User: What shape does this take?
Amino acid sequence: MKTIYTDNNATTAVAPEVYEAMIPYLTANYFNPSSMYEPARATADALTDARKTIAGHLGVADPKQILLTSCASESNNTAIFGAAKANPNRRHVITTAVEHPAVLEVCKDLARSGFRVTFLPVDTDGNLSVEDFIRALDADTLLVTIMHANNETGVVFPIEQLSRLTKETDPSIVFHTDATQSVGKLPIDLNGNFRHVDLLSFSGHKLHAPKGIGALYMKRGTPCRPLLIGGHQEGGRRAGTENVPYIIALAKAVELATEHIEDEQTRIRALRDKLEQRLEDVIPHVQINGKGAQRLPNTSNISCHFIEGEGMLFELSQNGICASSGSACTSGSLEPSHVLIALNVPFTAVHGSIRFSFSRYNTDEDVDRIVEVFPEIVANLRKLSPYWDNETNSPRPEADGLVWRTQ
Ligand code: PLP
Assistant: This one.
């Protein structure tokens, strides 16, 4: 059976071009780039070129502003703890209720150690209120950390506007964005639309590089202390011998994703829209979470009322289709998604949510296959669901204290 992989917000396949680019740095050019002998020079040069490529594709003029890390979690930890440590005179941090745990848990940790943290709410479409944001900025604010695109719903926050408003209020407030889901999917120019952003995190494995490599853009002059100290690498901002093969891979992946961004994302958006349209046409009581907001082109978060996401995932998997319920990091726990709770998705739909996320390797046939099998999976699971039984045999679910909402 062919595997249809539609869980690209969890991780992506390594692109063949990326694999080919990195192999020589695992084999012949394995040297430590800091070593002084001749063969290591080619490795050091390749590292410099890779950093230039990454910087160039994000509009960063000085490649030294790209800090190479092991993953987006490390980039986020560095940005948030680093900014907090660098500014001991202020104690207020602003974030949102729907961040990835790699930001949310770091902010909660700051709150436990005495910082005041504002977790901005979102509306039922997943949008932030800009008025709430402006109200939250105060003289004690040291850091704003707000994601660019949500990993679960794909909802995009107006980073250009929020970072500009921050700097207009107080240029010394550090503005960080977790762009792990948007680099390579949305246009990002750190010298253009994102010029007011000080720190920006992302990760290789969301854009067809391997797992274990990430980056943090650090605008020159941004107060931010290192997380890893020891060696002199990365200009003293992150100790540890550079992961040269994966850095080469990241550069190739960023190049591939950003060079064809418009054509590729237009095609991916068409696949996603077709999937949503077809499923809405044939499955009763579905809602597309975040549909009323600006979203990533590749992400569809669909709630089928009255059933469990795990059942749907299992049945899809039996048909060779890989998707996820909530984010991969939180699936495996029975906790409902904090993102869908923040969107006020009703109880009967939070548990029945499923995320399909596409990449450049998905095809029209993949969508056709999902549309062929998914409605029947939903219908069969509903036959077994006591909530569905209630819905079809009793007047209204409000009788159980459940909130009812359909598309
Ligand atoms: N931030 C967002 C928005 C994510 O989606 C993820 C991973 O799913 C991360 C951070 C963490 O990325 P990494 O696995 O590279 O640490």
